[in-house]
Every structure is written in structure tokens, then in C-alpha cells.
Amino acid sequence: MNGAGTFASVPIIDVAGLFSGDPVGRKAIANEIGRAAGDVGFFYIGGTGFDFRRYDDLLTVARRFFALPYAEKMRSYIGFSRCHRGYVPQGEEGVFEGRADLKEVFDSALDLPADDPDYLAGNPMLGPNVWPAIPGFAQRVTAYYDAVLGIGRKLLGAFAVALGEEPDRFLRHARKPPSQLRLNHYRYDPAAGDGWVSGEHTDYECFTLLTATGPGLEILGGDGTWIDVPPVPGTFVVNIGDLMELWTNGEFVATTHRVRRVPGERYSFPLFFCVDYDTVIRPLPRFHRPGRPIRRPLRAGEHVFAQTAQTFRYLRNRMDLGDLRLPEGALGVGSFGYDAVPAH
Ligand SMILES: O=C(O)CCC(=O)C(=O)O
Ligand SMILES: [Fe+2]
User: Fold this and answer.
1) Which of 108, 214, 215, 273 has its CA 20 to 30 A from that of 281?
2) pTM for the full model?
3) What is the DSSP letter of 173?
4) Number of domains in the chain
């Protein structure tokens, strides 16, 4: 935790130059991205060239899926998958204080064949997706995933440049990463009062690229106040996750965030950009600074899985039964992010 100061707003960065051939322009944008990643841990990116019809298409099939009867959705239940794919009913996932989030989710990730060697070897995050029987669902989820992953690769290169590293410093570890795309559905409940529908947390991976249908996302400022991060048309919200915070020894910060209840139904689509499962993440030597303890290394996929296992009911049950153990040296939830005390 770098004890970052206060920030009043979340910057919007036009990243079009990252996709052009001009190295000077690319460096300037990378530096802007690096500043936002260090000061706030959250920023918007525009100018990505992303065709937002892919977002509309994804939203259409997400609506269709979540409108199915519960029993039908449960045919894709995540607990049936051996690599954490499928439907997450409300009550399945909870981050803090034992209270479950008030949302339902569909989880997908890199879609590997059933004979993938890591899957066959029992890797808990790598393997095939689960697809519900909705026409176009698999195609639209995949089209969105591939396009946004491509933008993520550009960003990962820009982070390296901003940090003074070789452009492929992180990218060379992103060959077969278990990056997840989540479809979050927050149902509208007129009887419910104020409060949050997704508890405060940091994201576990390198960084997240998010689209959403409306406001509700809030991030924790260094002074303990919550700041609104509503969607801005034509942009993605980007936020730093635990692994990038670790790699930079706290130079980039995995900012704590949560989702507030809003008067209406809400969908959001975070893509959590990860690196390869077995990548050992240890703080880069340039961030070994006086007064900043050097954090312990973690394996990328093991960290993501350990956090997941502590927050999903079906995995906690397996641990209770002794069928599953947390990886050696796994951290508890909430081990990253600002040290600020939240003002509730
Ligand atoms: O719904 C949102 O805007 C954010 C969701 C989120 O933070 C998450 O899924 O990790
Ligand atoms: Fe999140």
C-alpha cells in the first residue's frame, strides 16, 4: 500500500495513439496511463477503436440468459465446472462479513479445448467455457472477449513502458492467461433500501476493463470517501488489480471499490486481465524503495484461485470437506489496496 493521497476525479484518457505507429505519442499516452494507475488506480480509456455494437450484442444475450427460469440457469451452475465457468446464483459469492453480494453472474474465460493439458492436469482455472443453449450467446461472449482482450494487451504494453520496462516485460507472460469475463446482473428490488449490492473489494488480476449499463460503481479515495465512477459512453473503466500492485510493489494501486444499490436493474461486464497461471509475480527491482517493504512473491493463477476459493460457496464447501486446500502461502481477501479506513 503506497499511502496514496486524495484524488477528486477519475481521469479520462484518449488512448488512440497507442494503436498508431508514432512512438513519441505512444510514450506520452503510456506516461499518462502510468500516472493515473499510480495516483488513482482507476481511469477511463477512450479512442480504443472498439466497436460498441459488440457491447450491445453482449447485453442482449446477457438479458436473455438472466431472464431464464432459475432451474434453467442452474443447468450451467459454476459448481459443475472443473475450471470455474458458468452461472453464479445470488448468494454464491460474498467478499466480506459473510454477506453475499446481491447479484447473479455468468463467468467465462479463455475457452480452451477439453483436451487442454492444463485442464486435464486439474488446473482449477484453465479449461473450456460452459455455454447455455441461447442462440448467439457463445459467439457474442467470445467476440466481446477477444476484442477487449486485444485492448488489454495494448494496455499491458503501455504499463510496461510507463514503468520504464521493456514493452513486452509483462506481455511475455500472457500466452494462455486465465483472464475472466464476468457478466454481472444486479436485479432491481424496489423493496430494498439503500446499501451496497457488491461488497468492497480489490480485483485480483493485473487490471480490469469494465463496461456497465449505468452508475453504481464507487471507488475508495485515499481519504476514506467513496467516489462515483459512472459509465462514460464510448469508454471502458480500467482499474488496477492485486497482481499489478504486487509487481510494482505498490507504485500502481489496486483501488478498493464496491457497487451501490441503484433504482433500476443494472448489468456490468468486467474483463479481468490476468497473466499465465504459473507466472511468479515478484516486485520489480526498480520498486524496491526505502520505507516500502518488499512484498512476498505470488503465483498469478494461484492468487486468483485462492481469492476465489475464499469467496465462493461451492469452493468453500470443498475446503470444508477437505477436498480442496488453499495454495501454499495464499493471502486472505482484502490484502491489497489503500490502507484507508472506509467511511460508511
Ligand atoms: O458492477 C460494477 O460496476 C463493478 C463490478 C466489480 O467490481 C467486479 O465484478 O469485480
Ligand atoms: Fe471489482
Assistant:
1) 108
2) 0.95
3) G
4) 1
